[in-house]
Specification:
There is one protein chain. It is globular, with a radius of gyration of 17 Å. The longest helix is centred in the middle third of the chain and has 26 residues. The protein is mostly helical. It has a two-stranded parallel sheet with strand order 1-2.
């Protein structure tokens, strides 16, 4: 399922004062959450200007920290594959993986 469709079906919404940084897969999120920033897309007819490229770089530099954490969590296959264990222990396992990641950050 596409990211934005999954987001809309999840019924999870942000508070109005929360800033959300999303990728280009979330085109149309401005209708749901006005305080969203998504990068500019280029087309064949309209290439990006230097200001657009700087804007995209600013957004991606803010998003890269979150993307790195998601990548680490995906290496444990807890969110990249279908979770086949007891749902009751999902939170515990997710917190343990987060703890391992935080421990590695401190080293």
């Amino acid at each position: 399922m596409h990211d934005f469709k999954l987001f809309k079906n999840s019924k999870v919404y942000f508070k109005n004062n929360t800033k959300s940084l999303v990728d280009t897969g979330y085109i149309g999120i401005k209708k749901i959450h006005a305080n969203s920033e998504l990068p500019k897309k280029r087309t064949k007819k309209n290439p990006l200007t230097k200001e657009d490229k700087k804007y995209n770089q600013k957004i991606s530099s803010e998003r890269v920290l979150n993307e790195n954490v998601i990548g680490v969590i995906k290496r444990f296959h807890i969110i990249s594959d279908k979770y086949r264990n007891r749902r009751k222990r999902f939170g515990l396992r997710f917190n343990l993986i987060s703890g391992i990641y935080n421990y590695e950050l401190e080293r």
